[in-house]
């Protein structure tokens, strides 16, 4: 049994209906997310979806500071990288993983 799985976090449709939604970078994000899901599936890597786990929109800190999505991403990577997760590109995540045998 492999100890590898793909967790798709906050890739849900509900954000599109929220007042803070922005279409900026959506097409590129969706293309890369789908490439990763497809690549994992073709390699027999289980894919699971976690919703509403992170902040992917600008928020106002209690001190009044506006925290941008880019800042949230950088802070999330700072906490996760090397501790709980490996931050990788689609290609890096799938590198060295053979395609699953056809059923």
UniProtKB/TrEMBL annotation:
Kindly give the InterPro entries that the UniProt entry links to this protein.
Answer: Isochorismatase-like_sf
Question: Under what name is this protein listed?
Answer: Hydrolase
């Amino acid at each position: 049994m492999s100890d590898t799985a793909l967790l798709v976090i906050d890739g849900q449709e509900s954000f599109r209906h929220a007042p803070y939604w922005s279409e900026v970078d959506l097409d590129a994000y969706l293309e890369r997310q789908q490439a990763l899901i497809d690549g994992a599936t073709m390699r027999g890597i289980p894919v699971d979806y976690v919703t509403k786990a992170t902040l992917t929109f600008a928020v106002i800190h209690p001190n009044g500071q506006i925290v941008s999505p880019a800042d949230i991403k950088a802070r999330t990577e700072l906490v996760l990288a090397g501790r709980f997760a490996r931050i990788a590109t689609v290609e890096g995540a799938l590198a060295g993983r053979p395609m699953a045998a056809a059923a």
